[in-house]
Write a structure and sequence with these properties.
With 119 residues, this protein is α+β, with helices and mostly antiparallel strands. Helix content is 15%, strand content 48%. The protein has 1 helix and 8 strands; from the N terminus they run αββββββββ. The strands form 2 sheets. The protein has a 5-stranded antiparallel β-sheet, with no helix packed on it.
Length: 119
């Protein structure tokens, strides 16, 4: 009986490990630019071309912009934020059924448009 339980536990553990996915944050990154009013998005995955980037306006809760990354390997793209009005936004990157979301605040700092990513 003990051998049966041990064997069953081993099979369940191996099955869970075999089908577990890496957390999305391990292969999707959203990084602010130090020099310009832009955000970089990169997906470190073989099928990164199936990734979709969506910007949402939080005040109206609507999608403003949707972009599909075009790459068969690792994909990276920059998005300019200078056209956005002052307010709060969400950027969502989805690939292979996994999603990473970041909230962005665009604001006026001494007459100059700036932004930060909520932590």
């Amino acid at each position: 009986m003990k051998k049966s339980i041990t064997l069953l536990t081993l099979i369940l553990t191996l099955g869970t490990v075999a089908f577990a996915k890496a957390p999305a944050a391990d292969f999707i990154s959203i990084t602010p630019s130090q020099k310009s009013l832009s955000i970089g998005v990169s997906v470190q995955k073989e099928d990164a071309g199936k990734s979709v980037v969506t910007f949402y306006n939080e005040s109206t809760n609507t999608a403003m912009f949707k972009d599909k990354l075009a790459s068969k390997g690792t994909a990276a793209k920059a998005y300019l934020l200078d056209e956005l009005e002052y307010g709060n936004y969400t950027i969502e990157v989805t690939t292979d059924g996994q999603t990473v979301k970041e909230r962005i605040c665009v604001y006026d700092e001494d007459g100059k448009k700036s932004y930060f990513i909520f932590q």
